[in-house]
Amino acid sequence: MSRTDVQVTRPVDLFATVEARHSVRAFEPREVELARLEQILMAANRAPSAGNLQAYEIVVVRAPERRRALARAAHGQAFVADAPVVLVFCADPEQSAERYSRRGAELFAVQDATIAPAYAQLAAAALGLGSTWVGAFDEAAAARVVGGLRPVCLLPLGHPAERPEPSSRRGLGDLVHDERLGSGAVAR
């Protein structure tokens, strides 16, 4: 797939996209357009990774029976099956271990497989689609659905059938620690 195969949308404000992104767990029954899905996958592909190895795979799950199996693996979270598409981000520990040994296998591949879905979520939000990060699942059951790969994140996505209220967030004073200002202080 080349860049010319996908219609690129107008530039969006990153900070507005971050602010607009919310976890969506109710989806309209219509399909996600292929051009939008490709843009989301291209955004995930642009995510940074350790040594630029991209030690992860993305499995696109559209078939209803496979989405239902993922929902069962996700401890019965039905919205996983209700989404028209689920992206399953899987770590490739062996690929990362070739360059980074044990730390690559145990950490870097997992980090790679978590940075990419964050980019995908922002791209989905920028395109007017909803998604939610699902990390609560039986890894072995989800792996059976995706051919034995090591799943790290399920990302159900589609046209939102809800507009969730923003969730509360920790204040920066509780989150950010600046050695110049002391613990709990935010640089201004």
Write a compact overview of the structure shown.
By secondary structure, the chain is α+β, with helices and mostly antiparallel strands.
Describe the structure.
This protein has 188 residues and is α+β, with helices and mostly antiparallel strands. The chain has a single domain, classed as NADH Oxidase, CATH 3.40.109. 41% of the residues lie in helices and 13% in strands. The chain contains 7 helices and 4 strands. It has helices at residues 14-20, 34-45, 64-73, 79-82, 93-126, 139-145, 172-175; strands spanning 56-61, 85-91, 130-131, 150-158. It has a 4-stranded antiparallel β-sheet, with helices on both faces. Helix 1 (14-20) packs across helix 5, helix 2 (34-45) packs across helix 5 and helix 3 packs antiparallel against helix 6 (139-145). Mean pLDDT is 90; it is low at 1-6.
User: Going across the major beta sheet, what is the strand order?
Assistant: 1-2-4-3
Shape: globular
Strand content: 5-15%
- CATH class equals Alpha Beta
CATH architecture: 3-Layer(aba) Sandwich
In round numbers, the mean pLDDT is 90
Query: Which fold name corresponds to the CATH topology?
Result: NADH Oxidase
Low-pLDDT residue spans: 1-6
H and E order = HHEHHEHEHEH
Radius of gyration, taken over Cα atoms and rounded to an integer in Å:
18 Å
Overall number of strands: 4
- Estimate the helix proportion, in percent: 40-55%
Domain module count = 1
Q: What characterizes the major β-sheet?
A: 4 strands, antiparallel
Secondary structure tally, helices: 7
Q: For the terminal residues, how far apart are their CA atoms? A: 45 Å
What's the CATH H-level homologous superfamily? NADH Oxidase
Category from helices, strands and their pairing: alpha+beta
